[in-house]
Design brief:
single chain; alpha+beta; seven-stranded antiparallel beta sheet; 21 strands; binds 6-diazenyl-5-OXO-L-norleucine
C-alpha cells in the first residue's frame, strides 16, 4: 500500500517541477559533419575548400584553395597584397606555424610617419602607398604547398580564377561595406577606381585584371608575384603614388616557419601563433592569469567574469606594448612572460572591490631580462589534419591602394608598427622600441590562429579578425566552450567584450547586456559601447565527443560552414 502513495507523491513533485522550474534551453548547434569542414568568411570560399578535400586533397590543399577564393570573394580582407599566419596540427599530432607576415620595405625608417613636429601622421601609415608592407601571402601559400600539398597548385588556384572571371555575387553586408569605403578608395588612388559605384545586394563583381594575375601565377608560380610581371605592376603603381617598395623588396621576401606558443589551460593544450604575432603570448598570459580562478562559478558575462578577465587582459596588453616585436630583431622573454610565477605575481594587485587603473600599471618586471630592444578560417580534413589561418590587409581594403593593372588591394600593415613610442595606432594599441620600424622587420600582430587539444586529441580550431580584439575574442571562445560547455555555434554568437590596457575602458559590443554596467562603473571600470557594433568574427570548428565536427560560423558577417 505504501508504494502507490510514494508514486503519487513523486508524480505530484514531477508535475510541480515541470510547471515551476525553467525549461533547460536546447543547445543550438552549427553545421555538423562527419569528417571534414571549412568555416570561413564567405560561403564560396568554404565550399571551394571542401570541394578540394572531396577530391582527395588534405587540409593544406584546402587552405590554399580557400585562401585564394577569399582573395576574390572577400577583398576587404582576403588578399594577395597582404600577409598572414597559419598554425597547424597534423593527424599524428605534429604542430607548427608559418609566418608569412608583411615586412617593412628596405627604405623604411624609424621615423617615417612623423611630421615636422615629431607627431605621428597616421594618414600616412594607414592610407596610401607609404602604408604598404611587402606582401607575404603568395609566398606563404607556395610554402604550404611545397611542404604539405598533395594536389597540383594549378588545380588549387583554378576555382579562384573561375570566381574572378565569372564574378562574385555581392551580399547585403558586402554591398554596404564597399559603399562605406568609396571615399577611401578615391583618396588612396588619388582618383576614382573601378569599385567607385553604388553597390547593391545581388550585383555581380567580375575581376578581369585579377583573373589575369591569378592565371599568370598559375602558369609561372611564386616568382610571378615576387620577380615577374606582377612584381613590376606593384612596384610601378606603388612608386607612382609615392610609396617606397622596390623590386629588391619583393625579390628578397621570405616566409619563416616558427615554433607555436603552447601551454596548458585546465587539462587542455593550447597551440597558438608566436611572434611576430603577440597573439599566442597574450592568449597564454590571459588564460594562465585566470586559470587559478574557478571561472565556471561566475555566470557568463557576469560582473565577476568581466572583472577577472579584464584585469588579466589589461596586464597582458601592457606587457605586449613593451616587450613584443619581430623575434628576428628583438629578444622576447616568452618563457618569463608566460610563467605561472610571473603571472600570479602580476595578478596579485587585482582587487575585486576596485578596478586597477591602467595609468598606474605598466609592463611587468622580472629578473634576467635584458632589454634590446584580418580574415580567419578554420579547416579540419578527413585525415585528421587541422589548420587555423588568419590573414590580413590590416584595415578594410588595406591601404585602399588598388593595383589597377593587377586587380588587387595592397595592405596598410605598416600601421601595426609603433610609429612613435606611446602613440596609438589604428587599434589604439601603443608600442615601444621592440616594435619600432626598421628595414625588413615584421610589424607586431595580434592575429591568433589557435588550436586546442584535449588528452592528445584535436578539440577545437579557431581564430578571428579584429585587430587588437582578436586575442580577447579567441580567449572568450575558448572559455565559452571549456568553462561554459557551449556549442561552437553558441560560443561564436555570444556578445563579447575587450580591454587592452590603453585606452582604459572595457569595449563592449552593442548587443551586450547593459544590466551590469552601473555596478562595473561603481567598481571603477569605464564602459565603452561607442563605435563597436561588433568585436571580432570568429570562425571555428569543435570536435564533438563522438568525433563529428561542429562548425561555428560567426553571424556578425556572411561567414559560413561547409563540410562532409
Ligand atoms: O596583424 C594585426 O594584428 C592586424 N593587422 C589585424 C587586422 C585585423 O584584424 C583587421 N580586422 N578587422
Amino acid at each position: 500500500m505504501k508504494y502507490p502513495i510514494i508514486l503519487f507523491l513523486i508524480a505530484i513533485l514531477c508535475v510541480q517541477c515541470m510547471t515551476t522550474s525553467k525549461p533547460i534551453p536546447e543547445k543550438q548547434y552549427g553545421l555538423i559533419t562527419e569528417k571534414a569542414m571549412v568555416v570561413s568568411a564567405r560561403e564560396e570560399a568554404s565550399k571551394i575548400g571542401v570541394e578540394i578535400m572531396k577530391q582527395g586533397g588534405n587540409a593544406f590543399d584546402a587552405m590554399i584553395a580557400t585562401d585564394l577564393a577569399l582573395l576574390v570573394s572577400y577583398p576587404s580582407a582576403g588578399n594577395i597584397g597582404g600577409g598572414g599566419f597559419m598554425v597547424y596540427r597534423q593527424k599524428d599530432g605534429t604542430i607548427g606555424a608559418l609566418d608569412y607576415r608583411e615586412k617593412a620595405p628596405l627604405a623604411a625608417t624609424k621615423n617615417m610617419y612623423l611630421d615636422a613636429h615629431g607627431n605621428v601622421d597616421s594618414d600616412k601609415s594607414q592610407i596610401g602607398a607609404l602604408a604598404v608592407g611587402v606582401p607575404g601571402t603568395i609566398a606563404g601559400l607556395f610554402e604550404v604547398h611545397e611542404k604539405f600539398g598533395t594536389l597540383p597548385f594549378e588545380k588549387l588556384i583554378a576555382p579562384a580564377i573561375r570566381l574572378a572571371e565569372y564574378g562574385v555575387v555581392v551580399t547585403e553586408k558586402q554591398a554596404q561595406n564597399l559603399n562605406d569605403h568609396t571615399n577611401d578608395f578615391k583618396v588612396a588612388n588619388k582618383r576614382t577606381i573601378v569599385l567607385d559605384k553604388v553597390w547593391k545586394k545581388e550585383d555581380t563583381i567580375k575581376y578581369p585584371k585579377l583573373t589575369q594575375t591569378l592565371k599568370r601565377i598559375q602558369a609561372n608560380g611564386r616568382g610571378e608575384f615576387y620577380k615577374g610581371e606582377t612584381a613590376n605592376l606593384i612596384v610601378d603603381y606603388v612608386q607612382n603614388l609615392g610609396g617606397i617598395i622596390t623590386k629588391e623588396d619583393l625579390a628578397s621576401y621570405e616566409v619563416k616557419w616558427r615554433n607555436p606558443v603552447t601551454f596548458e589551460y585546465k587539462n587542455h593544450r593550447i597551440i597558438s601563433m608566436p611572434p611576430p604575432s603577440s597573439g599566442g603570448i597574450c592568449v597564454a598570459q590571459i588564460l594562465k592569469s585566470i586559470e587559478p580562478y574557478d571561472i565556471e562559478q561566475y555566470a557568463h558575462n557576469s560582473i565577476q567574469y568581466m572583472q577577472v578577465i579584464t584585469e588579466a587582459e589589461r596586464r597582458a596588453y601592457a606587457d605586449r606594448s613593451y616587450f613584443l616585436g619581430d623575434p628576428d630583431f628583438v629578444t622576447i622573454p616568452t618563457d618569463s612572460l608566460t610563467s605561472k610565477t610571473y603571472l600570479s605575481r602580476r595578478m596579485a594587485s587585482f582587487d575585486w572591490k576596485q578596478a586597477t587603473m591602467s595609468s598606474e600599471l605598466s609592463r611587468g618586471v622580472f629578473p634576467g631580462y635584458e632589454s634590446t630592444e584580418t580574415t580567419h578560417y578554420s579547416i579540419v580534413d578527413q585525415f585528421g589534419n587541422s589548420v587555423a589561418v588568419t590573414t590580413t590587409l590590416n584595415s578594410s581594403y588595406g591601404s585602399k591602394v588598388y593595383v589597377e593593372k593587377g586587380g588587387f588591394f595592397l595592405n596598410n600593415e605598416m600601421d601595426d608598427f609603433s610609429a612613435k613610442p606611446g602613440a596609438p595606432n589604428v587599434y589604439g594599441l601603443v608600442g615601444a622600441e621592440a616594435n619600432a620600424i626598421a628595414p625588413q622587420k615584421r610589424m607586431l600582430s595580434s592575429m591568433s590562429p589557435t588550436i586546442v587539444e584535449k588528452d592528445g586529441q584535436l578539440k577545437m580550431v579557431l581564430g578571428s579578425p579584429g585587430g587588437s580584439t582578436i586575442i580577447t575574442s579567441v580567449i572568450q571562445n575558448i572559455l565559452n566552450v571549456l568553462e561554459y560547455d557551449m556549442t561552437m555555434q553558441e560560443s561564436v554568437s555570444k556578445p563579447r567584450f575587450h580591454h587592452q590596457w590603453l585606452p582604459d575602458s572595457i569595449k563592449v559590443e552593442t548587443s551586450f547586456d547593459t544590466l551590469n554596467f552601473p555596478s562595473l562603473k561603481k567598481l571603477g571600470y569605464n564602459i565603452d559601447q561607442s563605435n563597436t557594433p561588433i568585436i571580432g568574427k570568429v570562425d571555428a570548428i569543435l570536435v564533438l565527443p563522438d568525433g563529428r565536427l561542429e562548425g561555428g560560423a560567426d553571424p556578425r558577417g556572411d561567414d559560413s560552414a561547409d563540410g562532409f
